[in-house]
Every structure is written in C-alpha cells, then in structure tokens.
Amino acid sequence: MLRNRLFFFLSLLASGALLSFFAVKSKATVQMPATLSSAFQLLGKPIKTIDRSLTKLLPINDLDEKRLGDSIALRYESYSDPTNPDQIYLKNLVDNLSAGNSKNFEYRVFIMDTSSPNAFAMPGGVLFVTKGLLSMVKSEAELAAILGHEIGHVELSHCMDGVRGELLSRKIGAASLGEFADIAVGLFIKPSFGKNQEDEADQYGYELLRREKYDPYAMGRTFRRLKEATGSGEGTLSPIEEYFMTHPYLEHRSEKFTEMAKKEEEGSYYLGAKNLNERSSRYEHEYEEEFVKR
User: Over 50: is that where the pLDDT of 250 sits?
Assistant: First the structure.
C-alpha cells in the first residue's frame, strides 16, 4: 500500500514537471492583466466583441493611433445612440470644436449612463462623457471647456503616449486590437495623466474657448462645479467619486483660470445656456441674448 502511494505521488511530480517543460518550450503566456472594461458592463450596456478586426494580432510597433481609436469605438459602439438628442448635440459640438485639428481624427463621443460628472479621452479621438456631467454644466461654454480639455489630451498625444508606455511596462510585444482597446480603456477610465499633462490640456481647453469666443470664465466655473460635485472636499472622496474624478486640484485650477479670464480683452463672448438647455449647439443656432460683455 505504501509503495502504491509513493508511486502515485512520484507520478504526480513527474506529470507536473512534464507539463511545465512543455509550457516553457511552447512559450505559453499567462492571461493578460484584467482591465476595467467590466466597469462599462456594470453600467448597463453590453460590450461588442464579435468582430474579426478586434481579434487580429498586431505588434506594438505597428499600433496606429487611428486604428486603435477605431477599435475602441467599435468595441463600445453600444454606447452610441444616433437618435438620442444628447448624442446628436455632443457630436455636432465636438465636430465643430475639433475641426481642423492637426491629427485629422474623426472625433467620436460616447455617453455613459452614470450620475458621476466626468469626461475622459481615448487614443484616436474617442471621448466619453457621463450623463452626470451633462447635468452639472450650466452652459455650452462650460461644456466646451471640458470637451476642449479632453480634445487637448488627444491632440497633444497624451493618450497614445500613455498607451505605449503601459504596453512597454507590461512587456507586451503583440496582442489583438480588442486587447489593446481594453488596455487603453482600463488605463484612461482612472487617473492616468501627470500634472504637466493636465496643465497642458487645461491650457488647450482655455485656448479653445478663446478661439471660439466662448465666455473665458467658463473654465474656472467648470472646475469649481466639479469640486462642489465631490461633496465634502477633494481629500475625502468616496471610492466611487475618486474612481470617476480624474481631475485633481480643482480649487487651484478654478482660481488660475478665473484670474486669466479677468485679463482678457473687453468684448462680447458667447455663453450658450439656452443652447445647452435645447441641445442645439451655437454652430446650428446662435442666440443674441447669449452674448455677454466682459
């Protein structure tokens, strides 16, 4: 009996060693690290995965930003409803705000069904905006300030640089487009930009307001609203608030851009409260009463 048990035990050890040997010989790899893509599923919409283009293997050095953006947009296309007034409004606004940008991407906007106010950008000109953000802002100028900030992250290559850095840190040489898309979403749904990148995107958004003659005070007001939306203060966010609030130091940023707005030349600037309320951008219809003197 003892001899049988010993033989069984040795057989198990030999089998384990043999499996390990073949795994190394075949260069078997572990499953890629989990991403935050499940967060999207928890918000109530499915992720599209049945598409051959998303399963195609691609080396990291061949990863093109536009192609990655297309794969992210395809993966989350269930978030887009072309008949939704909010979707139509955001698309028109983003199309005009991004017109003539250096990267020549077709910017796409997806709406997340959550009350937490936030927006974030993905490589290839893919933007996510929450319903909570649309409820928080009080004018089209404020919404343009946030969209301009996110467009800035794309145009200044913050998004693609972040993805490439993450892939290199994980030592990923090749993967499918679907896996690359999940990694990108998992990276940018949480805080991922450094302070300098946030400052650069802030400045880009502010310059966009100036270029389009929106109310320059909108940037400072928006940061103040975001701070107020966190409740008791930036240092005591709940896990949910901290998860979605990807823009830190809001009080400082509000003060900075309010002071900058005070130095702008006197003139007439567009507010767009009525446009936001009616979900019709100023590029479709401008209201005379929405111009304010500064």
Answer: yes
